[in-house]
Design goal:
Blueprint lengths: L1 E9 L2 E8 L13 E15 L2 E6 L3 E4 L5 E16 L3 H4 L2
Antiparallel strand pairs: 1-2, 2-6, 3-4, 3-5, 3-6
Length: 93
């Protein structure tokens, strides 16, 4: 299960709180917006263009524009995602 809550979408920045249950494996994602992920809680494997690393509570991950990425959730997670510019597709859902 993935639960998203848009916390802010003003100017050129968007902040989204994402809650994901352990066992979730995301599809490969790619978007023109830059993204920074802050792992507030949990543990996950982050695959950025084939380079995999484990993120633990307190870690961050930068995702450049149009870079393919995906996650595999190892423990229930709370992630704070920051996008620039605002991802309109997330506002429309």
């Amino acid at each position: 299960m993935v639960k998203r809550n848009v916390l802010s979408a003003e100017g050129s920045l968007m902040v989204v709180k994402v809650e994901i249950e352990a066992g979730f494996e995301g599809d490969t994602d790619q978007h023109p917006e830059e993204q920074t992920c802050y792992l507030e809680k949990g543990k996950l494997e982050f695959d950025l263009a084939g380079d995999k690393k484990i993120l633990n509570e307190g870690d961050t991950q930068y995702v450049p524009s149009n870079e393919k990425h995906r996650v595999k959730v190892l423990e229930d997670c709370v992630i704070i995602d920051v996008f620039s510019p605002v991802r309109q597709d997330l506002l429309d859902t």
